[in-house]
Design brief:
Ubiquitin-like (UB roll), 2 domains, single chain, elongated, 4-stranded mixed sheet
């Protein structure tokens, strides 16, 4: 693996670096030549004034192609960069609540969650139980359901409330219909 300008491409075996005795050869214009010895494949590449590149080293026999390696590597880097541009990074924001939260405080947290959801982030809402509160998990469930109602315009429940240790956790995802 090599690192080129923020893009990682895997390094392929080329020309004399190919260790197989026989290879399945693909010509410069893409036609299948067939299974030939490595020397014949190298001669065909030199004749075309191009490189012999092992594009499928795990195949039996390995598949080699006659191409311009510099151009191939340049295009691979370009494809990787394009794919990276199209990726969308999804952040998960976390909000912590308590089971005995006041309505105004819940509305403030819901407004924060709505802002996160509008930006396209997922929201992890956690209700932490302490001491005797652990015996009243239904109150935490009610708090999370109220929270989901307050954020229903911008988000949908991605993962329903579940207990994880001393906490009850719920995930909200952005509502794609309204955004």
């Amino acid at each position: 693996m090599k690192f080129y300008g923020g893009v990682i491409i895997k390094e392929l075996q080329i020309n004399e670096g190919i260790r197989a005795k026989e290879v399945r050869l693909i010509g410069a214009d893409g036609e299948q030549i067939g299974i030939v010895s490595i020397n014949e494949a190298l001669d065909a590449a030199r004749e075309a004034d191009l490189d012999l590149v092992n594009i499928a080293p795990n195949a039996k026999p390995p598949v080699c192609k006659v191409i311009d390696y510099g151009k191939y590597r340049y295009e691979a880097i370009k494809r990787e960069k394009e794919a990276k541009k199209k990726q969308k990074v999804i952040n998960v924001k976390e909000l912590r609540l308590s089971p005995n939260i006041d309505t105004h405080d819940l509305e403030v947290k819901a407004n924060q969650a709505n802002n996160f959801l509008k930006k396209g982030d997922r929201v992890k809402v956690t209700v932490r139980f302490r001491g005797r509160e652990l015996g009243h998990t239904s109150i935490g469930n009610d708090v999370l359901n109220d929270f989901a109602e307050l954020t229903s315009e911008n988000g949908i429940i991605d993962k329903k409330p579940t207990m994880e240790g001393r906490s009850m956790v719920m995930f909200l995802a952005p509502n794609t219909e309204n955004n």
